[in-house]
Amino acid sequence: MTTAAETTSLVQSVDWLAVAPPVIVATVALIILVADLFLPQERKPLLGWATIAGLVAALAFLVPLRDGGHSTFCLTTGTGTATACSYTADHFALIIQFLVLGGALLTALLSLGDTRKLPAGEFWFLLLSSAAGAALLPAARDLATLVVALEVASLPAFALVGIKRGDRRSSEAALKFFLSSVVATAVTLLGVSFVYAATGTLHLTELATRLDDVPGRLDTLAQAGVALTLVGFAFKTAAAPFHFWVPDTYVGAPLPVAAYLSVVGKAVGFSGLILVTVIGFPSYADVWGPALAVVAALTMTVGNVAALRQTATRARSAVRLLAWSSVAQAGYLLVPIASAAYSSDDQIGSTVAYALMYAVVNLGAFAVAALVSRTSPDNRLSDYRGLYATRPLAALAMAFFLLCLAGLPPGIVGLFAKVTIFSAAVDAGLGWLAVVMAVNVVIALYYYLQWTAVLFRAPEEPEAAAAPAGAAGTTPTLRVAVPTSLTAAIALTAAVGIVLSGAPQLVLRFAAVNLF
Q1: CA 113 from centroid of its chain's CA atoms
Q2: Four-point Cα dihedral 208, 209, 212, 217, nearest 10
Q3: pLDDT grade, residue 84 (50/70/90)?
Q4: Residue 280 CB coordination number (10 Å)
Q5: Please, which residues have CB within 8 angstroms of residue 124's CB and are 6 or more apart in sequence?
Q6: What is the C-alpha separation between 157 and 132, in angstroms, rounded?
Q7: Among candidates 195, 245, 196, which has minimal Cα distance to 223?
Q8: Cβ contacts of residue 285 below 8 Å, gap of 6+?
Q9: pTM score
Q10: Are 125 and 112 in contact (CB under 8 A)?
């Protein structure tokens, strides 16, 4: 007979310090939503600075959590011993929260000068709401909290993509993003319900134990649940063949939102995928390991081949190339997760290290794209020709970001990050996947170096250079004022990238550590 001391208590004690980062972001979002009702139009810029202040405060609260030993919302026995927790601020969660909140902060800097034609209050509220869900997700340790956090991060993102009112392309992008994400959510929820029916629990640590001993009559149900849950997260990570929404969504969204989705959205998807595979479903590693390895190979190949096909004169070809490059990078990020099925959980550190590098340089590349779009709204690859002649520092920064993504010096951090991914595949015995990755890295070199070369070419001569100023057929060169916040975003990402290239061990040490 079960004694009172052995029964599980449902009384929850809340560690407010542990949940402070997402709670602060959510609280500031609500404050901005209310303040927007009372602030006159000329004072709306204060909402952007309040957003930045809230994100900085949330980042500051990660410092006292750095020991990684905080858990809350735990089920406890009568003796006070925790049996399972729904929220754990371990080292993995803190690193991803740092990435998410830092990415949201850089997005806010990019957006300060670009909200003139957007509803400012709604924009900042939606950005913070999405960031709050994204910060909650890596600390989630049960499937219910995981799905809720995933949707809190995703639902505001739909509105952010379509926030350009009256823009057909923006509305179409938001609709495609919404429909694909709804399908992903439905598939994920179906998989979660199957897993719960087979095991009777939603906590990831308990799932790992109970899936080892599923009754024979429920084994097929459990396998279907695991497979459907992984398919749902494949949509969120933009893994092929579930990547079709990415190019149109990035092109239709405001550039800061596209930058946010490419980094924070990807971090959310991969965090969830890591949690359910490594912590929740290790018993089915023989199923999800090979599947993720094949998906990784397919994703990086599709992304790189599509990026090669972008023509320099096509409208918004620069953003499309970054979108397809993002798909290819997702393939690289999947490699260590697949490798963890064949070796140890330590391989996950390689994904975290690569994600940190990718976040910095990709946000920097989008920042330069936002700068170019101020004078060339179509944002073609050909619009970057001669950028060094007009904005030498921006051109040098863009060249550095592209070389980091390519994995070439002086982008040392990008080179070493790719080496850690490659080593993870080799150590796990996935030699064929390492070969596919090597081939794709070579393919990617072509379009990254081609774009880099364009930056330093001589600018094209205007067609009617001989005509008098103001005559028909001439296009005067406009000097558009660049917001200080945009300049700061480019400078900050470039500075961090240079520091990491000089001391790559600051990031790569995560590749050799078990973060859980």
Answers
A1: 22
A2: -100
A3: confident
A4: 26
A5: 29, 32, 47, 48, 50, 51, 108, 115
A6: 12
A7: 195
A8: 277, 340, 341, 342
A9: 0.90
A10: no
Fill in the DSSP letter of residue 156.
H
Pairing of β 82-89 and β 70-77: antiparallel
Are residues 382 and 312 in contact, defined by beta-carbon separation less than 8 angstroms? yes
C-alpha distances out from residue 334 to 62, 161, 329, 433, Å: 27, 26, 9, 11
CA atoms within 13 A on the CB side of 59: 15
Residue 291 contacts residue 312 (beta carbons within 8 Å): no
Task: Provide the 3-class DSSP secondary structure of residue 515.
Answer: coil
Residue pair 248/176 in contact (Cβ under 8 Å)? The answer is: yes
Query: Which tens digits make up the pLDDT trace of 184-241?
Result: 889 999 999 999 999 888 999 888 888 888 888 888 898 899 989 988 888 888 888 8
Compute the half-sphere exposure of residue 388: CA atoms within 13 Å on the CB side of its CA.
Answer: 13
Can you tell me the distance from the alpha carbon of 157 to that of 500, in angstroms, rounded to the nearest whole number?
A: 30
The whole-angstrom separation of Cα 438 and Cα 419 is 10
Q: Are strands 8-9 and 70-77 parallel, antiparallel or unpaired?
A: antiparallel
Do residues 250 and 320 make contact, with C-beta atoms less than 8 angstroms apart?
A: yes
Query: For the chain, how big is the Rg over CA atoms in Å?
Result: 23
- Tracing tokens 């495609």 back to the chain, one arrives at 176
Q: Which two tokens stand for residue 330?
A: 């997702």
For 37-46, the pLDDT digits (tens) are 888 888 888 8
Over range 134-147, report the average pLDDT: 92
For residue range 352-396, list pLDDT tens digits in order. Answer: 889 999 999 999 999 999 999 888 888 899 999 989 999 999 999
φ, ψ at 74 (rounded to 5°)? -105, 145
Q: For 436-444, what is the mean pLDDT?
A: 94
Q: Is 331 helix (H, G, I), strand (E, B) or coil?
A: helix
